[in-house]
């Protein structure tokens, strides 16, 4: 268990749908949140919902050269420094792989995988100075089960899951925790109208950001290493691990639907 009251939490993606709900939920349990995003207006609106000083906006582009290092430098001057880091930023990408430009693929991996890696690397000395600390990555079902139309995004989330699993194992004899927590489809601007239409046709359930945020905060407090939100996603993610051929066949049957929605 990790009590969040009066802790400083560094939260990326705070201007997003899940991130802003998570920011509200973290403040709700007494945390002070350093809210990272690129959209300053949205970060300021988020901060204005709470008592002064509870949410500190930090505008940063994590995919830019030196972006993660700048965040590390700024938070290292805070008192107290963050003892919980929640990585809830990401870039989405829906479409057929061969239609994405090499530049877009590189930007996706830079945002979703390289930025978390360099941010965690830079923050480790600060985190180790706390008697108890956690790093939490917000993953995705597609980090356990790669989906057609989301090949590059799935690769970035598989990478993120591997990073968190490796770090958790490397720090197993310390008080520093690494958690990989996966929402399923959630009603935010992350999903384009094409993704929403495909989800409706495939009868994919969509969660509300506030419900996801409540589950994420409970998981952060409990310290569990992994969590997949929602049935049947929990089951499919596990089946994909042990019997991927079953999932191959199921998704092959759905491929015409994916192709139809993924066409530009
Ligand atoms: N929504 C879903 O269906 C769903 C399902 C499973 C997992 N997830 C995961 O949940 C997390 C949150 O998703 P969401 O639905 O809240 O998405 P969202 O509403 O699109 O928000 C994405 C957030 O990431 C930030 N971001 C993107 N690129 C960035 C960059 N280069 N530098 C700094 N910040 C950047 C955005 O900041 P600005 O807007 O300020 O640029 C925004 O705060 C992501 O990790 C996503 O992969 C989402």
Quick synopsis:
It is built from nine helices and seven strands, in the order βαβαβαβαβαβααβαα. Helices cover 49% and strands 14% of the residues. It has one domain (8-262): NAD(P)-binding Rossmann-like Domain (Rossmann fold).
**Which sequence of SSEs, written as H and E, runs from N to C?**
EHEHEHEHEHEHHEHH
Principal-axes shape call: globular
Weakly predicted, low-confidence segments: none
Largest sheet: 7 strands, parallel
3D structure, described in words:
The protein has helices at 17-28, 40-48, 67-75, 102-128, 151-170, 193-201, 209-222, 233-242, 244-262, and strands spanning 8-12, 32-37, 55-59, 84-87, 133-138, 176-182, 226-228. The protein is an alpha/beta fold and 264 residues long. The protein has one domain (8-262): Rossmann fold. It has a seven-stranded parallel β-sheet with strand order 3-2-1-4-5-6-7, with helices on both faces. Helix 3 (67-75) runs parallel beside helix 4 and helix 8 packs across helix 9 (244-262). The N and C termini lie far apart (47 Å). It binds NADP nicotinamide-adenine-dinucleotide phosphate. NADP nicotinamide-adenine-dinucleotide phosphate is lined by residues 12-19, 37-39, 42, 61-63, 88-91, 111, 138, 140, 183, 185-186, 188-191.
